[in-house]
Design goal:
By secondary structure, the chain is of the alpha+beta class. Helices cover about 20% and strands about 35% of the residues. It has one helix and five strands, in the order H-E-E-E-E-E.
Length: about 90
């Protein structure tokens, strides 16, 4: 039983090491986020499962729209209306 628990913990640590870095000092610029509350120009977006305060450069974005992150100032993201590219079928 202890061996199974140890193997589980080790596998979770190993999986976490493969995730991209996040947190202070790591830029989200260039990534895409989903609008959670309407941006007019302030609101919230969802990035990697986390809600962030955001400011839209111009216009208005509705919940569910994709926006591109153009800058990060502490815990606030500057975003622009630019949908994420769609994967091409081959």
């Amino acid at each position: 039983s202890l061996g199974l628990i140890s193997m589980y913990v080790i596998s979770r640590v190993w999986a976490a090491r493969r995730l991209p870095p996040r947190g202070p000092g790591v830029s989200a610029v260039g990534e895409y986020a989903t609008v959670v509350t309407a941006l007019d120009p302030h609101g919230q977006v969802l990035l990697h499962g986390e809600r962030w305060q955001a400011e839209l450069s111009s216009g208005r974005a509705e919940p569910g729209e994709q926006v591109r992150i153009t800058a990060q100032h502490g815990l606030t993201l500057d975003v622009a209306r630019e949908p994420a590219p769609q994967p091409t079928a081959t």
